[in-house]
Amino acid sequence: MTAQIPVLDSRIVDLTTPLSPSTPVVPVPEPFAPTAALSFTPVSDFDEHGPGWSWSDITLGEHAGTHVDAPRHWISGRDGRSIDQIPPERLVGPVAVLDRTAEVAENPGYLVTADDLERWEAEHGRMQPGTWLLVRTGWSARGEDAERFLNGNVWPGLTLKAAKWLAAHPHLSGYGVEAIGIDGLGAGPEAGDAEDDPGAFGPGHYYLLGSDKYGLTSLRNLDMLPATGAWIVVAPLPLVGGTAGPARVFAFVPDGGEGE
């Protein structure tokens, strides 16, 4: 990667959702097992267990809050990289922002299409090497209300064709969203698709993670980013063998770059 992050001439935008015990996790129906939300177990708090310090143990699912999905999270990438094996240079790169706020306001289950992606490149040019494509939907406005954020298991996602388009893009490192997961639960085969396509359920997970590209969820402040020109730093916990890592995510926006 020959381009440089314009650190000195940029403002820093935090794209991370604050993580607390009330932060929702992906709802998983029975008989499947859900992941854990954040919880704290105090160890000491300036007391007889530690008179000069306070600290706690935590329980936290890999996929809670703002986090990065590694390839081995999904069956299509099960032999791929775990979160600690993702090269650092894949976690820093230029940002492309696709705005679908109006569409999601009309249809909360809106699925990004391959046509959406092709039109973005026709307007803004080919995505650069190492790009993270972030989809702005306005969904993060629901982030402080778990019921609205989960919305009866209806949130924006990707069509099967869009997932395949992204998986085939030679310059894409990752795909980020404001919702709790990169796939909406309403995704499925489109007209002309084979009903038995293995990616029909969870197309983003299946095709992106299966092609060594990464998912990034529960983002905020995407309205503060321009369509192009910003850079992202994605910093997941390097959990050895992990299928994901809770992350702090920052964007560097050059002076003069404004959100849409």
CATH superfamily: Putative cyclase
Any idea of the CATH class?
Alpha Beta
Task: Output the CATH topology.
Answer: Glucose Oxidase, domain 1
Helix content: 10-25%
Total number of helices: 5
Residue stretches low in confidence (pLDDT < 50, at least 5 long) are none
What structural category characterises the helix and strand content?
alpha/beta
N/C terminus separation? 27 Å
Task: Specify the biggest β-sheet.
Answer: 7 strands, mixed, barrel
> What is the β-strand count?
12
What order do the SSEs take from the amino end to the carboxyl end, as H and E? EEEEEHEHEHEHEHEEE
What form results from the Cα inertia axes?
globular
What do the pLDDT scores average to? 94
Number of domains: 1
Quaternary status of these chains?
Answer: single chain
- Per CATH, which architecture? 3-Layer(bba) Sandwich
Tell me the strand order in the biggest sheet: 4-10-9-7-5-11-12
The proportion of strand residues reads 25-35%
Compute the CA-based radius of gyration.
Answer: 19 Å
Describe the fold and architecture.
It is a single chain. This protein is α/β, with parallel strands linked by helices. It has a single domain, classed as Putative cyclase (Glucose Oxidase, domain 1, 3-Layer(bba) Sandwich). Helices cover 15% and strands 27% of the residues. It has five helices and twelve strands. Strands 4-10-9-7-5-11-12 form a seven-stranded mixed barrel. Helix 2 crosses helix 4. It is globular and about 65 Å long. It comes from Microbacterium azadirachtae. Its EC number is 3.5.1.9. GO terms for molecular function: arylformamidase activity.
